[in-house]
Amino acid sequence: MRFVTAAALSACLAVPVLAAEIPGLPTISVERREQAVRDGFRYDKLAPELKARIEQDDTQRLCTEYRNEPPPEVAARIEKAALEAIVFPEDGKFLGDWKKGEALSLNGYGLRMGDDPKRQVGGNCYACHEMAPTELSYGTLGPSLKGYGKLRDFAQDAIKEVYIKIYNPNATVACSTMPRFGTKKILSIDDIRHVLAFLFDPNSPVNREE
Amino acid sequence: MRARSIVAACLAATWLATGAAAQSDNPVEEYRRLLADPFANPGYLFVDRGEALWHQKRGPKNASLEQCDLGLGPGVLEGAYARLPRYFADADRVMDLETRLMWCMVNLQGFDEATIKKTAFSKRGGQSDMEALVAYVAEKSSGMTFEIPLEHPKEKEAYALGEAVFYRRSSYFDFSCSTCHSLDGRRIRLQELGNMTRQEDAARAMTSWPTYRVSHETLRTMQHRMWDCFWQMRMPDLDYGSELSVALITWLTKNAEGGELAVPGIKR
Questions:
Q1: pTM score, two decimals?
Q2: Pick the CATH number of A6-16+56-207 from 2.40.110.10, 2.40.50.140, 3.40.50.1360, 1.10.760.10
């Protein structure tokens, strides 16, 4: 069934379905897959924090099951749960220091094996997004955010929306490619405010001409 | 072989010292051209060291690897890498080149598996025996096309498991392999990401490994690439030669079938 969906999907995208060409492929149960994953990282020997990285939470499990294309009712469930768990800044202030936000956007350090847990974890937004027009080393997994604040009229609603996007992108796009920076405690609320300022401060290079 | 290595080492040193950009108006093209030049590729030093290691009597059993069966019969090296991963009855599992070499080092030479795993990836400078052996064996398939059996039920299972894992999301960033490798023409920062679900991209990737990595100053293997991508995914260290790693490599290699090997490669 999954192959049928994949076939239909990839016919649209003109990607050959490699799996379908091989006769007699077994179905891999979730249990079998999870056992192989645990063995592959020597699960039993790991510290609890590392064990937790291997275990899937509900969102990861569902997005894996549907290969990021959940049916509407599942998508709605994921989005609702994500939205309900968002923690907003207590003082209602959304914008921090754009310079700190720029540094966080450029910074890809943290949470890898061997990384110093005492050092600041980056947001690494540039891995996937174009932001300031002067920074040419940007990835293309996400949409361009060049001139983002200006394009959205620096509106309060837009700022809140993007706070939600960064905190948990699944609140609006179930199974988004973008990490859940707030929910997974990758960035603190203050960090998110700085990144928001990088996108929405009129003086930020994101909103200046080239 | 010897002479070629010395030339390769000198040229590579000059190239690294001067930088590729000076040679041409188009630095990217010039860089690519040099990567493809076997005489400018320090990976061949690993091929030579691997050849010596293959024939040398070593380990507690004081044996060479000459009787190691890489799938085409004991000691047959030509084309062996182009037919891996595959099922091996003696080990009753699917093995990629590295798992199989490890098996031979344990069973023929008496080396300790845990020690091989611990030293398989060298630090800078490239003193890992495994990296050298992989370079030597793989080079014997250079110019040939990947075509793996995928007939035995365990081979089919490895392929299907590899595919299932490719789409599995986990850890802090919710990444799966497919996050970065299932779209066409995307980049992370400036690094191009192959779409491994497409034959062309999978072939371009798989036919260039093992590869000399300039930034690592050593030759790297496909097991290392898998470890590296899981590291980027904020996952724990991948167990060298695990079923998981071989499953992913089986899936990738099958997707790459028809691609012509040009190894050792050389990359950033």
A1: 0.91
A2: 1.10.760.10
